[in-house]
Amino acid sequence: MTTKGLWTDGRLRYGGDWNPEQWPQAVWREDVALMRAAGVDLVTVGVFAWSRLEPAPGRYSLDWLDRVLDLLHDAGIRAALATPTASPPPWFSLAHPDALPVTADGVRLHHGSRDTYCAAAPAYRTAARSIAEVLAARYAHHPALALWHVHNEYGTTCHCAHVETAFRRWLTDRYGDLDALNDAWVTSFWGQHYTDWAQVAPPRATQYLGNPGQLLDFRRFWSDTLLSAYTAQRDLLRAANPAVPVTTNYALGDWVPVDHARWAREVDLVAVDHYPSRTDRGAEEQTALTADLARGWARHGAGRPVPWLLMESAPNQIHAGGRMHTKEPGRMIRHSLAHVARGSGGVLFFQWRAPAGGAERFHSAVVSHAGADTRVFREATRLGAMLGRLAGTACGAVQAGVAIAHDAASGWALRHPGMPRDGLDHPGEVAAAHRALWHAGITADLVTPGDPLDGHRLLLLPALYLASDATVDWVRRHVHAGGHLLVTWLSGVADEHARVRPGGYPGAYRDLLGVRVEEFHPLADDERVPLTSGGIGRIWSETVHLTGAEPVTAYIGGVLDGRPAVTRHRVGDAHTWYVSTRPDDDTYRRLLTDVAHRAGVGPTCPEAPPGVEAVRRRAGDHTRLYLFNHTDRPQRVPADGHELLTDEPVAEVLTLAPGGVAVLRERVPPQGVATAARERSAAMRTASPASTVPIT
Ligand code: GLA
What we know:
binds alpha-D-galactopyranose; 7-stranded mixed β-sheet; about 30% helix
């Protein structure tokens, strides 16, 4: 499947969700005129329009959508046409109460919101297929159609009788017989041994702690079930016109029961929705992380790279701490272009026009309740012009010498009850490592275990709890090929069924790291343990024995006084590091800067002042340097080339306005990231003070 149709003109796509069904036609015409003024060329339509498209079972009302698509086409705007299956009409829920979702404690939910369906219910699957078929038959060759946007943010979970049947089927396929399931779930514990498949059920509310193997498999099963709901629609849409790409937008967050890496193999482009949850610099850190995640998923989608696209973002607000926070002028542009710098094929907003009512009536919109004579609309128009100026230039691979491993199942497993500490958070630890590198100016790729590691001099495993034999082999191959490795606490402690690997932690990587962990000492939320490197450790600490590694940093005080906190081990040409606590942000930044430096990886733009983010893309001999000034002062960066947003030459120094962005076509492209970093590292080796304090 090609996604060329979306990007044949080399332009970045720009637009957002548009809901004309909420407005009279006079507003449609005004909207389209405003879209043209803002430079919009792609809008998502029909996401929640099922009850308007099929007002009664089998009775379709499509004329209005015909008019919408024709209007867009006449204006030169293309459509990401959604299948509306995230919001079944009330008539459907009333006719099929068995297709309403049931919570783990047995409560059946009712219509009145959205996403109120069970993806395993046959009636829902049939109805979803039917409406998708009707849309495919009518619009698959409509000239405005650029992309099929299946559903919206798959994520609803269910524990009903249909789910029970489907779960058993999935488990039978996975394990073949009950003995294998009993073994994987360690049902010998608490006498849970199953003697008949009919006894196996989804993890519903129970008296005390549930079975970790069952909980984990249920998450995997549900991700696969939602995926099959997506692929059922994708296949029929593709059959109607194979030239039109198909995708579904990813929701991100702990609650999402979806393994995005696995799903990436089934989409023609990875589409992510991103809403930062922090209002401070954390919003920029989260933006970079999300974009790097999306790029990582896209890199190995469908067994080959597929494009990725920021499908939803909020134009002018961040919702955090129970209130809406207005994005400061320029911030939306920085966030949008930060996604583009890291590989997004464009910028889409949720939403185009603010609704007059409904649950999200005060959600951020390009055309707000105040209309278009607004700061947000003017800023959106400015962004549209900027994206236009970047046409044909936003190509090339993002240069990153460090890979951070990320794994949905490890995140799910660490959330299980009965862990040594509450609040264990694999995505949070991935974010902490990414944040430390981001502040060090070092660009990272996010990888899923098993992904090719080419050009990555350093691999990080942050609390990557689960390790199948295949994952262990993948890590081993990286190290034996001379790649450096940094592993943090709780990585490799369990196998893919969440069964502990015996013999001392971290079972999967003890020999690679030259350590053996005897005992955990989880810390309370407000507890801190001082480290000899000068910082503190949080969340976690451990009794680490050296079985070949050397100590780098030690704990100070308490039962672990003088014992290793961070260690380093030599394996062939590589160093492997073990970090047994979560250092504070500054200490973590210094540690990872040092580890990356020893691996031959340095900052993307070593001369960039603090608060300036730099991302480099390279295609052959051409490079683009994206620079973001996240401070409220002008910042100067040594640079030579041509600035594309202002179309001005730059000689020696580029001055970034407060909160400003620049995209530089560099005059003399620097060498590849690893080579340059290696050379820099050789030059710095004697001059640079070690940022970790070795203890002897
Ligand atoms: C998601 C949904 C949208 C909207 C936004 C609100 O991304 O896809 O429909 O609800 O969240 O932030």
